[in-house]
Amino acid sequence: MTRAAPGTPPEIPGLVYRQPLGSGGYADVFLYEQQQPRMPVAVKVLKREGLTPSILRQFVEEANTMAQLADHPYIVQVFRSEQLADGGAYLVMKYYPPPNLATRAKRERLSVEEVLRTGIQLASAVETAHRAGIIHRDVKPANVLISQYGAPGLTDFGIAGRALGPEEHDEDVGVSVPWSPPEVLYGQSNGDARSDVYSLAATLWHLLVGRSPFEQPGGDNSAYALMPRIRATPVPQTGRADVPVSLERLLGHAMAKKPDARPQTAIDLARGLQAIEQEQRFARTPIVVLDESGHTTVADSTSRADPEEPDPDRTSVRAPRVTSPQALTPSPAANPTADTGVDDETQPATISGGALLAGVGVLVLILVGALVWAVGFRGGDDPTEASTGAPSASATVGGGGPVVDLPEQPLIDGRTVPGGVAFTWQYAGVRKGDYYRVRAAASEAAVPEAQVLTVRALPHTVKAANGQVVCAQVAVARAAGASSAYSAVKCLTGG
What we know:
The N and C termini lie far apart (63 Å). A hairpin with a 5-residue loop joins strand 10 (288-290) and strand 11 (296-298). The strands form seven sheets. This protein has a five-stranded antiparallel beta sheet. Strands 17-16-19-20 form a four-stranded antiparallel beta sheet, with no helix packed on it. By secondary structure, it is an alpha+beta fold. Helix content is 26%, strand content 21%. Keywords: ATP-binding, Kinase, Membrane, Nucleotide-binding, Serine/threonine-protein kinase, Transferase, Transmembrane, Transmembrane helix. InterPro entries: Kinase-like_dom_sf (IPR011009), Prot_kinase_dom (IPR000719), Protein_kinase_ATP_BS (IPR017441), Ser/Thr_kinase_AS (IPR008271).
């Protein structure tokens, strides 16, 4: 083995160099051909320039981490690793042809179905790592490779590590700012399962839009500009008409500013994505994780013979079944093997009179509820919507008092006009009498603290000098006092 200059592919026994694949901060990646058996492999080689003991330690830990998780179908497989006498090291991995997901998202518009499928597959990989006690810490589009069969492979565990306790700290943790959560960016956490959930959601948002969530096209997207947006600005809408509201909400939930407000595990996020697949009538993507004994297993099944069987990976609500009073009394002749969950010697063969009365009472409540539902159904203002079961454009909330009609969160847009910026917005379920609360400021971070203006007509123009930045967001309000959530912040320059 000869010493290689920085950026030069080393000579590796049994491998023949073919071409460069890419370069990162501390390593280069090359395509080699393995001779026995013959197949392409990717080789990650540490750069000699700037090599420190910390970088070498991270590189060794990356090899060990990826080898530990190598059996997972959505984690890039490691074949071998070696440290060299001159202080360098290399890592031989399964080859995934370019482009990675970051490049693909720039070149093409990924479908909602593909993003959902990819999200579930990556969540499976992340959950498996978490169950092994490993936090990835750098989930982002560039770290997701795609096999020749279209399956994603999560890679670059270079800053991954074991989950740390609340009193532990790792000074060597680096981050990729555009996809990192506020608590990591501002040093309140070294990363945990919930921070990986945030980064995975930010990655899916990126795949839908072609850029990271808080990046402003044509604006200042340096790390110092992004960090305050990530900390203070609401998660923006994707702006795609084909992205369902349920997916917008799930991504916003998973990118909540506070870790406790997010899905607490990657598998929780995967199940939310599965529910949206079902809602959109897409093919179901299975969740693949490690089981309790450390073996890879499918966490759910796509082949259910009985459609009435409950799906363990989906939360659902079913209509109550109306049961006759006679059915409340078990009959040993009709069901001699019924399992009551109680020892047969101590369980009475019949239900007591009190239990029977309680059962009849439940039946009456169910029938009354059904009658009330039917009356309300027939009395709706829109018989077409009621008969098809289409979701309402706004939500209703009741608490024993009057029903409140909550407007949908609006989608804000705008354009530069002479002397300022004209903002417009749209939302589903417009009601007569709707008005709007608008707040605008000279920067995105200042918008939440800006004075709120009541606006009743569109567009709303904010005065600004030529080239001056104006940022605004809007909420929909109704006469009854209900108000939507504020929109994402929109920033433009005055004309």
